[in-house]
Design goal:
homodimer, alpha/beta, Aspartate Aminotransferase, domain 1, Aspartate Aminotransferase, domain 2, seven-stranded mixed β-sheet, 13 helices, globular
């Protein structure tokens, strides 16, 4: 800074981004990706009814700061009352508000080593101290997470079910049973971004009023509205009301509000997407196996492919794909970084992957 | 909270909203407003090219976290380089990030009594101590603001030019000259949300590199994209880069990015809107005078109408309009709260106002 003093906390923060966007990579390569399979977006797109609703929105008006219609519809969808629901600018936005509400300088938070980095970004951004536990057999480990939370007196513990980046999951009963060991004073952030792609029973049967848990959901994945920025949280009403202390009340895009409402109403379309996701997961797994990679089971809209060696090798495979026009990402931490992570694509996307992957692996083998 | 401890700061914050939305009022009245003239939106809407661009956006993709294309276009528009520009979720979103970067518990900030409440919301939300100076003849008073900033050692001082809610303005030379008295260590937030509606010369000729000032602009007013949530800031590159420490990198709606880009490119459309705004200001002023109210000069897309008595009377006039289906707002603080604030409307909106206002005033007179 030239002459101004950031807060002591802000001065310590790096000016970095949790993820480099594919557009940045395209500009650096001076070419567009042929297949965009790295951000777990839904290539199948949103319901046509959502597109029509967004088109009809009167974008000259600010959105309703209460997100009333959407919250009411979500309440109906989940069989709860609307005071259990807060809508925000994607799960990323809601995570920021949630961390801000609970975490001050030196407060402990717990997550898994290699789990969603945007949670870490917010936790560090508000002065929190991050404690990480390892994955266990490529799964986030609720027992270890809650044990660590007790050990460090965590304000927040983060658990994604299904998990990103591995695609693994626990059944809901396992999560619910583990809650018995969640320490008093620790709030569980249960990130269910991928729940729409998961088997029945993956969502734990937890009351919306349960004060131990806040659940995060999104329209960015199976609903196909990543670019609209609509997420929501389900929790006890006093916790939900606290978001009104800090959120950007007029932060929601008005067309996005309408689009999410229409998308939610079109569950038939959602189910067709879920079927396409299941088929694409199988195809990605086949392509992986054809090339000597081991596909991990997935309850998400992506598949982690184990490249069979260390992180450097997987990174070389990834680099080979990127250089050949396929945007993919990979886990950040060992040993999960032996994998690359491939989002579900269209048939065309996946034929491109089938064609390109052998070359990318061959180039990685050569070093 | 049931069992969880918010941060000490968050615990002190009220769960309130800076503004009640018109939709909330409509739900309470169980009727829709006939004219929406309270939020300084642009009833004239955005450029048809912006609408087409938003429709064409691939909303299943996350937006570019760098906002690269839009920043480059804005840089060209302003004749500066893109590292002087940060794009965010409206001015409200940018204000939140800016306050977070600079203001910690007990840090002083300065604004005008009755100026934009969302700045105050953020300042208090991050623990800042608000110091207010009065308006002077219905104008924000840069001399008094900067004097107060020196007195209290403010980190930030907020000044809107043109002003909301009064519509008044200073010419750019006045702002620039006042800067000589801005104390070292105080950053001026110059909110230019309404600059597109103002006379030439209202924007001060300040270098984008000037480390004393950050300027805020928006697509929500004359550009007609309030519901899209696109604002930007212009400042010195090291200040601009600091936003990357705290912002929601993937927070921008992808369609909004495209819409803003197309809106910026269509300056011809913008000028037709500005003409319509000027005509509507004259009409609102006429309607006010016809009813014994005094229109204040305005460089914005609204007109403050002086109801000639105190805040209680203006509030009664406002209540009469709202009850009769016209959404308007009014200043929060005396003596500006002797006015109601009417946004520019369509011809139809303003004929409705012309028809309704006498009844609203008569009802207010009766008490």
């Amino acid at each position: 800074m030239t002459k101004f003093a950031l807060t002591p906390l802000a001065a310590t923060l790096p000016s970095t981004v949790p993820f480099v966007g594919p557009e940045t990579q395209e500009r650096a390569m001076d070419r567009a990706f042929d297949a965009r399979l790295g951000a777990n977006e839904s290539v199948f797109g949103p319901s046509p009814k959502a597109l029509a609703a967004m088109k009809a929105a009167e974008i000259w008006m600010y959105g309703d700061p209460e997100n009333y219609d959407l919250r009411l519809a979500l309440a109906g969808h989940h069989g709860i009352s609307a005071d259990h629901i807060i809508v925000g600018e994607g799960i990323d936005g809601l995570l920021g508000y949630l961390v801000r509400l609970f975490v001050g300088q030196g407060d402990a938070v717990v997550t898994s080593d290699g789990a969603y980095p945007t949670f870490n970004y917010h936790a560090v951004g508000f002065g929190g101290t991050l404690h990480k536990v390892p994955y266990k057999d490529d799964h986030e480990d609720p027992v270890a997470l809650f044990f660590k939370a007790k050990e460090v007196g965590a304000k927040l513990v983060y658990l994604a079910n299904p998990d990103n980046p591995m695609g693994s999951w626990h059944d809901g009963a396992t999560i619910k049973a583990a809650l018995d060991d969640l320490p008093d004073g620790t709030l569980l952030i249960l990130d269910e971004a991928y729940i729409d792609c998961a088997p029945v029973g993956t969502a734990p049967n937890i009351a919306a009023d349960d004060p131990r848990v806040i659940r995060l959901r999104t329209f960015s994945k199976a609903y196909g509205l990543a670019g609209a920025r609509v997420g929501y949280a389900i929790g006890a009403p006093d916790l939900i009301a606290a978001f009104n202390k800090v959120r950007n009340h007029f932060g929601m895009n008005r067309a996005a509000q309408s689009g999410a409402l229409a998308a939610l109403a079109d569950q038939t379309y959602l189910q067709t997407v879920v079927s396409k996701i299941e088929t694409a997961r199988q195809t990605i797994s086949e392509i992986g196996r054809e090339n000597g990679l081991i596909p991990l089971p997935s309850a998400t809209n992506f598949v982690a492919l184990d490249c069979g060696r260390d992180g450097a090798h997987a990174k070389a495979v990834l680099g080979g794909l990127v250089a050949r026009g396929i945007f993919v990402r990979m886990p950040f931490s060992a040993p999960q970084n032996r994998c690359i992570r491939v989002s579900c694509g269209t048939d065309l996307n996946l034929s491109t992957l089938r064609r390109i992957l052998p070359d990318a692996i061959a180039a990685a083998e050569k070093g």
